[in-house]
Amino acid sequence: MKQTVLLLLASSLSLSLWTGCQPQTTADKPTATPGKPGSGPNERAAVPSQPRPQVPASKLPKGAVKGDFDGDGTTEYVWLVAPEVVDEMECKGECTSYLRFSKALFPAITRENCIGGVPTNLGDLNGDGSDEIGLLPDWFTSCWMNYFVYTYRAGQWQPLVEPFATHCNQWEAEAKPIEIDPSKKGFVLVRYTDMDDTTFAVKTKSVPVL
User: Fold this and answer.
1) Mean per-residue pLDDT of the chain
2) Domains and CATH numbers, the chain
């Protein structure tokens, strides 16, 4: 019996050598590692998505405001997208507006409790080579509204100064809301409205940029 088994094994080995076939092990098979894209034989390396181009001038919304908001020497545009107002005191959804930009890399600026407004190019207020943006939000009632100033820094929009209170009287008088303080480096002059008893007074103070 042992001789018969040995003869069969020898015959099988001879046949394998004659045909050139060798047993395949699991190490010869390409395998994919679950949860790791690109490890399988048919996987392709991920290609980073390219940033979208700027919105062409022909497709800019009416009233878009131009400026160089990141200091790269090129012109960008900003405009406000307001919520849909369905009643005298009600929005369809949240009463939130957004400042959007022609440059795709700029994130939108979200402004809650705002149903409109026009962004303003305030020029370079902090000396970093880029223009700042001002916004007076519109609301259903009240002439009292905070004024917001934004600057682009480290890839995001940040406040240049703390929001400050303004009143309709200030805007009707065309008082400039903010400008560089020529006497102090890194400071700006803000004009805000203060109420003394029943009188609205426009006041000026010097504050450091944030």
Assistant:
1) 81
2) 63-208 (2.40.128)
